[in-house]
Amino acid sequence: MADKTEMEGTEMKDVAAENIVLEESSNQRKDEGFETIHLEEGRKKKVPRRVIHFSDGVIEEYSTDEEEEEEKEDKPLIDPSTLTWGPYLWYYTVAASFGALGACEYLGEKLAWFFGITSPKYQYAIDEYYRNLREEKEEAEQAKRDWEEEQGNIIAKLSQVEGGDAVVDDEIDITA
Question: What is the pLDDT confidence band of residue 75, given thresholds at 50, 70 and 90?
Answer without folding.
Answer: low
